[in-house]
Write a structure and sequence with these properties.
This protein has one domain. The protein contains five helices and no strands. The longest helix is centred in the middle third of the chain and has 28 residues.
Length: 126
């Protein structure tokens, strides 16, 4: 963290865009969420539980750790508003999808999307 000020801001900005797309897909944020309900409904139940309980949280943690690097560099973008907006859109989308579902595994997937997105909102705002 001490050397984060010395990083090139343009490189950090580009890296954030790619990391946000990659880890955002892994977390299941709204525009990138399409794979998660299919995987949870088709896969075995223990794998779905590990996916939702561990893998999504690890991706969210990595995304928030990189946000700390961006905050330490004064020339880099401030991704807080983007992350809060995507998180809120994901929560609302997952809530509407939960309302319409009757398959328990798909409900679990959309619940995981909503919980990970709800975790993203306050963490991105700080």
């Amino acid at each position: 963290m001490v050397h984060a000020r010395n990083f090139d801001p343009a490189l950090l900005n580009d890296a954030f865009i790619f990391l946000f797309l990659g880890y955002g897909t892994n977390v299941g944020l709204a525009p990138l969420h399409a794979w998660l309900p299919d995987v949870n409904s088709e896969g075995p139940t223990p794998i779905s539980a590990v996916l939702s309980g561990l893998l999504l949280n690890a991706a969210l943690y990595a995304l928030l750790r990189f946000k700390i690097l961006l905050a330490a560099n004064p020339g880099a973008i401030a991704p807080g508003r983007l992350m809060v907006t995507i998180g809120l859109v994901s929560v609302v989308f997952a809530a509407f999808m939960l309302y319409r579902r009757r398959d328990i595994k798909r409900m679990f997937a959309y619940s995981s999307i909503a919980q990970a997105s709800a975790d993203l909102v306050p963490a991105a705002n700080s």
